[in-house]
Give the backbone structure.
Amino acid sequence: MEKILFGDNQFFGVNHLSDEKSREQAIKFKDISAIMDILGYVNDIGIKTFMCTTHDKIAEVCDCIRSEKERYRDFKIFPCMPYAHKYANAVTDYGILGALKQYLPGNILSTFAKGGYAIATRDYIKMMELLIDSEMKMFRDIDTPVIFIQNVLTDLILGLRMKDVFLAYHDYIKTRYNAEPGYITMNLPMLYKTLIDCGIENPIICASINKIGFRMSGGITENERVIREGKCRVIAMQVLAAGAIPPSEALEYVLNLGRVESILFGSSSKPHIKQIKDIVLR
């Protein structure tokens, strides 16, 4: 993984401190051209990895990237799934079976039969595989070397202690997509211990890491201990604590931890993107 990864929160009006800022960003990036203007800039200044949800607009982003193959020839995407709001809305509108029918890939009769069997037998592993395949369709012909479970699902599985789901996900991503499985969490210490107990070696874990403990379950001390142990590849997100910490101060703390593999950040400002990049890579 590269040292710096670009995220997508700003494109979909996600700001953990300011509702007003969220509304401004949602309006600013309503049109796909505004998103591609920022992503084009990010790619052109040498940030070559985009870590994103599977929001419907990302399918349009992928279409744009495929249409400019030469410009984005070294560009990678790290998909993060599921995009929970998409499925919640579909279930509300169409019911569970209707939602599955809307998102299942391939031949609708064979895959829906497989999905129906999964529901009837409560085979959640099979359902998980189907939905992964569905989400990954938008990324065809794009380099996706790491594929993540979103924290909303990671931490649910963690809380339910369903270790078999983590193992099944790990194996499916490696065998089906020849990619590294990744896990986003709000509880790095607990997830780290669980994955190691599952026999998953050197896992890729994306978690909140910042000097004020913003959204860091387990506390700063425990998170720092896991990072120092060096038995997992940590991606630090929310390093600026949603803007509560100045960039230079925030990044100095994370970079001094020593064993952070990558830093994930998002921004809607080109000067701010360049500033972060220069600090991280100096």
